[in-house]
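dumping the sequnces here before i forget
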Amino acid sequence: MSENNLQSQLTEVYNDLQSSLNGSASEAYNQRRIAAIDSFNKLGFPTTKHEEWKYSNVKNLVKGAYNLSAKKSLQSEGLKSLEIPGLEGIILYFVNGYFQEELSDLSLAEGKISIQTFQEAQSNNPEILNKHFSKYSKDSEEAFTALNTAVANDGVVVNVEANATIEHPIILRMITDVTQENVASNIRNLVVVGENAEVKIAEIFRTLGEHSSFVNTVTEIVVAKSARADYYKIQDDNNSSYHVGTTNVYQEDKSYFYAATITLNGGFTRNNLNLDLNGEYLESFMYGLYIPNEKQHVDNHTVADHRKPNSVSNELYKGVLMDKSTGVFNGKIFVRQEAQQTNAYQNCRNVITSDSATMNTKPQLEIWADDVKCSHGATTGMLNDEAIFYMQSRGIPKEEAIKMQLLAFADDVVSQIKIETIREYLTEIIHEKLG
Amino acid sequence: MLKISNLHASIEDKEILRGINLEVKPGEVHAIMGPNGSGKSTLASVLAGREDYEITEGSVDFMNKDLLDLAPEERAAEGIFLAFQYPVEIPGVNTINFLKTAINQIKKYRGEEPMNAASFLKLMKEKAKLVKIDDQLLRRSLNEGFSGGEKKRNEIFQMAMLEPVLGLLDETDSGLDIDALRIVADGVNQLKNKDRSFVVITHYQRLLDYIVPDYVHVLYKGRIVKSGTKDLALELEEKGYDWITESIDANETVA
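..and the predicted 3d for all of it:
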């Protein structure tokens, strides 16, 4: 194990955390945290020699120095500009990984739902953590996930009871305030959607200021039998940010899961979306859009693991890569032997608008069942010159023609956003960035 | 209105147009015919401003402006419209929004107020009727999944909407059955007036049964080698191009 600044800092955080525990030290979930720090120490931060990190280099992140406990409370005025206009919901604010009660508004949380912070759940509801925490994560294989399991400070724990339909989306505003210094945080969320229940959840990441941030998040979502969950992840961070986020989803029979992962900005973004499709007649949709410019780097790794028969997964990721930006798409589909009659589709389309931008795509299908329908496609190309000339010949200036085509390209994903205020907001931001 | 003088154009150092001279006056219909590879489509592309070609010599004057100096969108705004031989599919952009943007960009260029939604819709309904184009088609992504006939009809519809001064029709008849051809030709004929001119590029005489030209020119090896009235088209239909091209080839060999 190599000694480095960040890693030793993190170990310190872990030690402090464990020594502060009283009665909860022996809880089952905490045993997983103890195991996770060992995994993390064994694995260390990945290098580009690691197959899953071949194109995403965290060398500079690992060398950096971050304040790991930059507890801060912000005034709501300063945060207004970071909000999505008109978006109503159950709002939870986190600043540098710490829950902000004064800024949060849970008044719309009606019905059979419990929303606690991760810290609260540890003292008041260890049962739910014992049952689910880190059950859907691969701590022994993934360093960042193991790290999060070991040292996560806060986040939300949502429990939607059976048959409950939660009308308003749960909106997690994850603000990292780097106006004064480099800040790191580990955020952990758990969402359990009971049988036949329905919930929508949005994670919105923003940075304030220009210093570097390191945000390592893990969200676990359990979608029980016949339950439905919509999940949004929207990232709009500064160019010095590092975001490593993992979303692990576990689905049971006849359940429905929908994810939209939208990366508007961020220096380095790595999203892992892993679907453990452990039920029959379930449906899963994964949509993604990334529009990096300058030297931004966006890496999406997805897994759809079909374990049972008669289910459907459908994935569409699209990227517009500008300037010197780089992108990675790695999409895996597994169809286990038992999972006959699976329909699994994957599609990744990219447009590069500059000679200096790069996109690496790697679709992977592993199919053990023989009666399935699977397809995948990954393309990367420039805009069609003939189409641009066609539009110009009708009086549309070249710049405008390019923009119209890029917006139309992105709209295939944006139009899938079901919450209107989010969809309109994204349309506007994308319009500005591609313009 | 349009005056092409000694126009030379090359692509990748290969000279395609080798001295074109042509004058089109308001209200005239000129047909340009010629065997494959003679430079017909190149001429249309050069006039519309396709970047692939390098103009090595000559000039094009359009409405007292140096056409070659203008970007393609500026040419469109000045009143040139090219109906493409192969209309391009633009995924995600429907014809309605496309034309709304085009019209308002042209208006902006001309320093006019943008067209409001109601007037635009009225204009669209009127022009859609003219070329018998289905409203549903206009709501779909531009040309995506359109049949050959639908694409060509959409070209004429766009021309009707943009009301150009000069319409260039590049092999608009190719790939059309007789019914589609008639609809397209009817559309063009209704757009004809004393100020609006057309240059109709075609390989076959067939289209000229419906769009009757005032002049017919034969393009061969990048030059107009013969000009006449509509009777020339009939003669070409009967005798082919050989009687014209052979003497030219013979002269070239001697030279």
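The mean pLDDT of chain B is 93.
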